[in-house]
Amino acid sequence: MSEFTLPALPDLSPATPVLWRGRVWTGVGDAPLEDGAVLTRAGRIEAVGRAADLPMPADTVQVQTEGTVLPGLIDLHVHARPAYLPWFVAAGVTTVRDACNSLETVAALLNPAGLAPRVLPSGPLLDGPDAFFRNFGPGAVHEPGDGQERTAGALIVRTPAQAERAVAFLADQGVTHIKLYEALATDVYAAATHAAARLGLPVMTDLGMLTTRGRAAQLDARQALALGVRSVEHASGYALAAQRAGFDPQAELPGDLLDELAALTVTAGAALVPTLSVFASLATDTPPDERDLPLAGQGGPVRESLEAQWNAVHAGTRPVRSLARADGRLAAQLAARIARLGGRVGAGTDTPAGAFTLPGGSLHAELERLVQAGLTPVQALRAATVTAADILGRADLGRVQPGAVADLLIVGADPTADIRATRDIRLVVQAGQPVNPVALRTALEA
């Protein structure tokens, strides 16, 4: 039996059993298991328990982590590009749900040239004729059947029949979920949700916020929840629901209304993905301090491109600072209430669409913001692990349990006590294989 201490790890064959020893937080229980261990082989977790109690094959490699072993993190809301896929891995994010991309881009994301997280794509979102994506140029918006569907960021659907055909088309392209946007007509939106349900595809929805065009949307959160959406992104549609109930969504909303909306979300079985980091960066003229986030100091052309985009977004949204504060307050209040009711809150960053949302790194900031909103550190961790996996419908992700994919994140301290401990990354393990630091550095600099 071989024994190693991080970071001196050998190249491991996928068939080699590896025992990762240390404090273990499974994602399922509340308290971590001290002096625990995780046995992995062939990309899966075979056993979890106290190190002294686990049987080990004779050829097992033991790795003493001197830290906490937890599930690889999941970012539920990203807009990925191939160039920065390694950034997620470096930050311990082993799975991402892509929230909108052309099918051409999705193909590149699913066939990366190097290190990359698992990508679960929606492909282009579905929207109405007055689509916001028209602002991105004529190539960003197409209609199903016009021969340009693979290049579109948004597919325009005007009738229920078109919505049904668009959902069927995306299902044939292998998407894992459907995204519905703010300008869809009510009957078209309903047709899309029903078509997705028949095909077993969960629906994520962005109904618009105060900072965008949420009050001009045709559906509010109540209506979307009644139609069976799996997750509501950015706490969108709730401000419109409050306005329709006779309240000013820019003001502090009454607690009983917030309680009602939170309970409605839980009863519907839907999840809230509040993306608090998006509102935090738009609510102030001062960019957030990200110096201690993973890869915060990473330079190069990818970072320069991201910075240029973020600075443009931040400067262009100066007139909506107060609206962003209202959006962020509403999202935080709903997240805390849903968590207290035992509902599902998922962690997503909208990276890099939101200003200064660092690929991979900003998920750690999102976890801290969830705690600041009122979630416990364990609830926040679950928002990026087991709860996130449940939102995805993937019982094999986001947990350290026998049979699950062996995606692990090893950090120095105990994040169940201090959520900022996730930032002290010692090692990332993908499908049982430790990510080679040299290969990771090469990928980041490529």
UniProtKB/TrEMBL annotation:
<dbReference type="InterPro" id="IPR051781">
    <property type="entry name" value="Metallo-dep_Hydrolase"/>
</dbReference>
<dbReference type="Pfam" id="PF01979">
    <property type="entry name" value="Amidohydro_1"/>
</dbReference>
<dbReference type="InterPro" id="IPR032466">
    <property type="entry name" value="Metal_Hydrolase"/>
</dbReference>
<dbReference type="InterPro" id="IPR006680">
    <property type="entry name" value="Amidohydro-rel"/>
</dbReference>
<dbReference type="InterPro" id="IPR011059">
    <property type="entry name" value="Metal-dep_hydrolase_composite"/>
</dbReference>
<protein>
    <submittedName>
        <fullName>Amidohydrolase</fullName>
    </submittedName>
</protein>
<feature type="domain" description="Amidohydrolase-related">
    <location>
        <begin position="68"/>
        <end position="432"/>
    </location>
</feature>
